Amino acid sequence: MSSNTIVIGVIGADVHAVGNKILDYAFTQAGFKVVNIGVLASQEEFVKAAVETGAVAILVSSLYGHGEIDCRGLRDKCEEAGIGDILLYVGGNLVVGKKEWEPVKKTFLNMGFDRAYPPGTAPETSIEDLKNDLSQGE
Amino acid sequence: MSSNTIVIGVIGADVHAVGNKILDYAFTQAGFKVVNIGVLASQEEFVKAAVETGAVAILVSSLYGHGEIDCRGLRDKCEEAGIGDILLYVGGNLVVGKKEWEPVKKTFLNMGFDRAYPPGTAPETSIEDLKNDLSQGE
Amino acid sequence: MEVVNKKWPIEKLFAQREEILKTWETGNEVADIKKGIEYQKSIPKAKNFAKKLKEAKENKVTLVQPRAGVALVNEHIALLQFLQDEGGADLLPSTIDSYTRQNRYAEAQKGIEESVSSGRSLLNGFPAVNHGLENCRKVVESLKSPVQVRHGTPDARLLAEIALAAGFTDYEGGGISYNIPYAKDVSLEKTIYYWQYVDRLVGYYQENGVEINREPFGPLTGTLVPPSISHSVAILEAILAAEQGVMNLTLGYGQCGNLIQDVAAIQTLEELAEEYLVNNGHENRQLTTVFHQWMGGFPQDEAKAFGVISWGASAAALAKATKVIVKTPHEAMGIPTKEANAQGLRTTKQIINMLKDQTLPESKQLLLEKEMIKKETRAILDATYKIGEGDWAKGAIRAFESGIIDIPFAPSRFNAGRILPARDNDGAIRLLDSGDLPLTKEIQDFHNEKIAIRGKAEDRDPSFQMVIDDIYAIGKGFLVGRPS
Amino acid sequence: MEVVNKKWPIEKLFAQREEILKTWETGNEVADIKKGIEYQKSIPKAKNFAKKLKEAKENKVTLVQPRAGVALVNEHIALLQFLQDEGGADLLPSTIDSYTRQNRYAEAQKGIEESVSSGRSLLNGFPAVNHGLENCRKVVESLKSPVQVRHGTPDARLLAEIALAAGFTDYEGGGISYNIPYAKDVSLEKTIYYWQYVDRLVGYYQENGVEINREPFGPLTGTLVPPSISHSVAILEAILAAEQGVMNLTLGYGQCGNLIQDVAAIQTLEELAEEYLVNNGHENRQLTTVFHQWMGGFPQDEAKAFGVISWGASAAALAKATKVIVKTPHEAMGIPTKEANAQGLRTTKQIINMLKDQTLPESKQLLLEKEMIKKETRAILDATYKIGEGDWAKGAIRAFESGIIDIPFAPSRFNAGRILPARDNDGAIRLLDSGDLPLTKEIQDFHNEKIAIRGKAEDRDPSFQMVIDDIYAIGKGFLVGRPS
């Protein structure tokens, strides 16, 4: 797989823009071609952007605690659009309130995400993971 | 019992003088005759002062966490000195560390104290208790 | 659509509200506006936000207020009662969920239903529109203190109708502060217009003897916002609200972390707002201030979070803000438990009470900071007025188009996004790149010099990396993001 | 016994130490003083207190240090390692138990035995004398940071011998500060003499190339102590220590709670000490400062306690003290768990780090406060020197006899106990009754006026009740104890 295009955005009714702008900067610096669909992004917008740009991964952010509702079904939509094996990452404050991380992670992996990140993860962590996941896919 | 003399002091190797001075003031204001033996007071000093002044109560303070070691045997010493039924109160930070109060209280009541007070008790509380205990004894 | 800053004839409001009340089924419950006014008049003085703020301002006391909201009515009431009784909150909120903020009432309904079936709140706030009039009144009636609606809703007309009729006595937001940081694709023409509706509605209640307080959202994106930017927006929204008949205004500011800058900001915010309101013909407005504890990233560790909360409480108290919005030790983890929320309140109140007799004394540094904030804010506001050809509404719209006002890290495409803030060597927020802000050379030089001193101390050229370092700094235990 | 402030010939120390080392069986383990010096020289620089303080002072950083000590060696080591690793303590303590402080080693032994059998510490500190040389070295060797002995021992000669030989590089206390607040019946002649021994011992180590830091105990009774009183004692003890050859001194001050007074106190403490040391012929001493977070009563609630801790951390950071001694959220309940102790450290460190680039700027109020503290302290010290006929040791003894120095709420019968402190309307500590302090009319008027303003604000005559209200105030959530 030679593309290094990724789609990033903040899902649902979420307007947290700061982390989004930092991820954009950090992944661009790390050599990726970043397609940033910004905040308030629907599942459909993520999938459409990924199909149109031939992206190898979708990185979903959710900072406002509605992640569980907003993310359900994203993998299905990818499959319907013919990009069923695209890498799906998710991170942020995924649930309402302070919760143990492991059960939350499991919920999102069961939804079809390849990786899920707890609050406070540095961009470097996901950059490294993405590079690893992409090189293994080759 | 017509005496209103009480003995107050800080037991053991304890040098906390502030509360002692406030108790002195508060009980005096409340109409008691206060015999204050100060800090670093031994069990013997408490008993001796109570015998000499015909006191109706001994109020022991302990602020430094060694209360359990320091107070053990005080009731026996009172009995030996012929003032076995004198009122014995104790209060302060009686044990090392943050502990549940009820078990601590029980320990001190079992040692022969009539009342035991947790950290942060206002002087008014023990003044009222003492007045009640003394009027019931009449 | 051309929006101008001119008081709406009441008929315009009444005509429009017929449409607005149809946008969700609960709207018709508030159709008779007289009943809302009557209900408001029955609320005791102690539960009126504007009156409680007035008293606090006179007594130079800083009140504490949490953020809080959950999906279901009884749980929401229990939460607020807990914060009132166990947290000692002086003022109460009802924070609205994110679906309602986007007028997605159907999704909010789904969130309510899933919350019922799962037994935990799946919404990040209280969906007041869906719950409707009687449920909202139940909230207000269950509490001893005044309650404010806090949200982030670009089009908050229906929410305002229900909230006011239900007895809420304070309403947060504004046509700029609830658009640029909260929306991506909504034009300022639209949101200023929507908020003229809200302000005219508040003005109508006022004309009928009901004091409602209004609070533009001060911190904006909450991320390294220079005081002159947030002051400009707050004062613009104050003028727009006052024109529609709003008499009680609380202007806000989000803590930057440098004590001198924070105190200077609160003091200048009130002084400048008073000046601009009076100069625009709006006399006798009740002006109070709100200080937001640190709005950026928090440390994960609760003990460290208590440190961040406390420093915010200290700055609020020393600045003598009228109220302070409180964070919690769970901040880094998302929405807090009610216990954590009450802890944040008690920590804050302990400090507020300990410092109530103290202020930050006047110093050369404080005077300079105040002078620079005033010069900058006047430069921005005066350019806004000019480009609006003497109309503040038109001016606001054009100022954002041209970058005369520019909010860092905002999601809206109607924001220029050309400025770049960074901390100076003392931790005050300065401009690394001032984009198209209409700053004089004197002001530019001031910023450049301040940033240069830091660059020299850190032996690096100021860049976006410095900005990122500053954004993560407090979460890592520092104010200034120095290279390690 | 006539004690004079004159450096002991080394033979006097050596003769006395033979007797001292016999007062408990572990004494003979340190009989060969050369071995102690050799061992100290093997300690790496990073673990030397004086050197770490020097570096902090140069970098204008405030270091954090907890209080901690338990009965048994392994538990004590585990506790300190926890505070180092989980709390991020920069400097470590070994707080000594109260029996050892009264030289009651047999009772301390009983406490050790009961702690072993009951499985929990029945002592409120670490009985270093009973544990002896090798156990104490094990403590020092198990830690990465410098370790100080903190106690409250009027006669701390044997403890000092063991501590220094074991590699502790800082020793708290002094002939006044560990007598008047810590004893009832011990004369100042005796304790000044005992502490000349300790200082001469430190001086001997110094002459042999080992830097040991000494720290007079600043907060005294920790209860409404006016800065001029604690400054006078600190500077007196600094002069007495310097005479015996001590080169490294950390002078202390306990937070009063009014920011301006606290910052003024730390700044004047260093300025005055420097002045008096140099004027008395002691050049080139390393002077650092320690700020003690609030030493009085704490709120029971942990969230509120975090507020009190944080305000202390803020004042320490803005005053740029060299180190801060940290309280814990369990303070009101007695001795804290190790987790609570680490929380206090992390909260403090978050604030220290956030404020490291900030200071309290110069203001009229700060300058006035500094000026008054200096005038008062000089009045007390100069009267002390005079009554001592040019000898600081004799002066100290006679000053306490005559009330020239007078510590509020002290247990010692050698303290006059005639002064009465109370807060003024801004929360600063003033004198309600200045007893026999040698204050000029200007200073007296200053205090009277400040107290009168408060009395008027509270509509009551200042009295002992006001003092009691102030003592309980912080525990109840306020700094100034106003009538409710």
From TrEMBL, chains A, B:
It catalyses: (2S,3S)-3-methyl-L-aspartate = L-glutamate. It comes from the Bacteria. This is Glutamate mutase sigma subunit. Catalyzes the carbon skeleton rearrangement of L-glutamate to L-threo-3-methylaspartate ((2S,3S)-3-methylaspartate). Pathway: Amino-acid degradation; L-glutamate degradation via mesaconate pathway; acetate and pyruvate from L-glutamate: step 1/4. Keywords: Cobalamin, Cobalt, Isomerase, Metal-binding. GO terms for biological process: anaerobic L-glutamate catabolic process; L-glutamate catabolic process via L-citramalate. It comes from Proteinivorax tanatarense. Adenosylcob(III)alamin binds at residues 13-17, 61-63, 93-97. Its cofactor is adenosylcob(III)alamin. Its EC number is 5.4.99.1.
UniProtKB/TrEMBL annotation, chains C, D:
It comes from the Bacteria. It catalyses: (2S,3S)-3-methyl-L-aspartate = L-glutamate. Its cofactor is adenosylcob(III)alamin. InterPro entries: Cbl-dep_enz_cat (IPR016176), Glu_mut_E (IPR006396), Glu_mut_E_C_dom_sf (IPR014714). Pathway: Amino-acid degradation; L-glutamate degradation via mesaconate pathway; acetate and pyruvate from L-glutamate: step 1/4. Pfam families: Met_asp_mut_E. Its EC number is 5.4.99.1. The keyword Isomerase applies. It is an enzyme of class 5 (isomerase). L-glutamate binds at residues 67, 101, 150-151, 172, 178, 182. Signal peptide: none annotated. One of its GO terms (molecular function) is methylaspartate mutase activity. Keywords: Cobalamin, Cobalt, Isomerase. The keyword Isomerase applies. One of its GO terms (biological process) is anaerobic L-glutamate catabolic process. Catalyzes the carbon skeleton rearrangement of L-glutamate to L-threo-3-methylaspartate ((2S,3S)-3-methylaspartate). Heterotetramer composed of 2 epsilon subunits (GlmE) and 2 sigma subunits (GlmS). GlmE exists as a homodimer and GlmS as a monomer. This is Glutamate mutase epsilon subunit. The gene is glmE.
